[in-house]
Design a protein that fits this description.
The chain is α/β, with parallel strands linked by helices and 433 residues long. It folds into two domains: 7-224, Aldehyde Dehydrogenase, Chain A, domain 1, CATH 3.40.605; 226-406, Aldehyde Dehydrogenase, Chain A, domain 2. 47% of the residues are buried. The chain is globular. The protein has 16 helices and 15 strands. α1 (7-18) packs parallel to α10 (184-191) and α4 crosses α5. It has helices spanning 7-18, 21-26, 29-42, 49-62, 66-77, 82-93, 129-138, 154-166, 168-171, 184-191, 203-210, 240-253, 276-293, 301-321, 363-367, 386-396; strands at residues 103-105, 108-113, 118-121, 144-147, 174-176, 196-200, 218-222, 226-231, 263-269, 324-327, 333-337, 350-357, 374-380, 400-403, 427-431. It is 42% helix and 18% strand. The protein has a seven-stranded mixed beta sheet, with helices on both faces. It has a five-stranded parallel beta sheet with strand order 5-4-3-6-7, with helices on both faces. It has a three-stranded antiparallel beta sheet with strand order 1-2-15, with no helix packed on it.
Amino acid sequence: MTATPTPRHIADLAAAVRATSAQLKLRPSRDVIAALGAAGSRLLDPGDPIRAEALDRLPESSGLSPAMCVAVLDGMAADWTAERLEALVTAELGSADALDGFVTAGRRRSLAVGPSLAVQIVAGGVPGVGVNALLRSLVVKGPTLIKPGRGDLLLPTLFARALAAIDPPLADALAVVYWPGGSVEHEDAALAHADVATVYGADETVRTLRARVPATTRLVAYHHRVSVGLVGREALAGERIEATARDVAAAVSAYDQRGCVSPQIVLVEEGGAMSPADFAEALARALAAAGERLPAGRFDARQASTLQQARSTAELLAVAAGGLVRHGLASPWTVVLESSPQPPVPTAGRFVRVQPIGDAADARGALAPLGPHLQTVGVAGLGARLESVAKALGEVGASRVTPSAAVAYPPAWWHHDGRGPLLDLVRWVDLER
């Protein structure tokens, strides 16, 4: 890795990127979308050297296995095409025209103006999150300085290189730069030039940055989130239990369970053709099979110790409370059946807790303690109850309820943590006559 830039260098870089704002605002939004999509599509093209370099270097930079890197890149980059970006803009702003001039919506004529500089500080657990972040600001014609996490530096850097080859002036509106996480001097040097700051990270990271962001700078914060699964009785009958277990296992395995959308707990209804214990056994088999197709990435000594402690604790509790624990010998997946809903605790590997509930309606009470951090709920087997249960989950804190099979890769236009990802970045100007 190159030497860490000085705070002075960060300040100069932020000022230079901000200086591109006036020209960028003059560009037709669909031209910007086309250029961004052309750069993003290079990471999907099997014959493109940018994609080849990404897949060659991602296992080392991210810690994921080569097979998982292919799956993650394909899943993430599917949203980096011009078609998906246009759909995102349309879903959020009504039309890309709103970025180019005043448009009529109801009784108002309004213009959406992107930031003069968005500074984005992104966590590094999942590769591709940084590209998602920079695309959101550039697509609304907002120059962007992004500091990815250490594990997500490669893809934003390759995207910037691809964009520079396609549209150099637009690439001038993007800077990808790394400094050690938590460096107040570097962060403040960048934030001094920003009118929007976006931060992804732990609650403490968000709290400390919120205290230092200038009063006139809008803060868009994505703090720590927890996702869960909810399996209804209808998904426990016959062959459906195996298919449901495969979908849940795929969601748990994606990104080696590092993502904010990765389920850590699965609530399973009692009273079906198969019991929660049967589902736990099916999930164990599915995770073992998923580990064959998409092996886990590298594990350091600290992670291995954390996993061993979590398994040992679970086994002791299972003996006392009548639960069960299943895990791989050479693969770091673990399934724990617990007697009642419990909050998640930090673990390592693909570690999921199966917890019985009497009825899907009880999920609201079971998940209430997670409310401020609850994000995605992957569901199966709810049938006609889906909307009523989803409403209750939304009221308790969930921002996304989706089929288990779709958990790992939200669509580009999802309400990220319950908000509009582009609406958080733009400023609206109303024209009154």
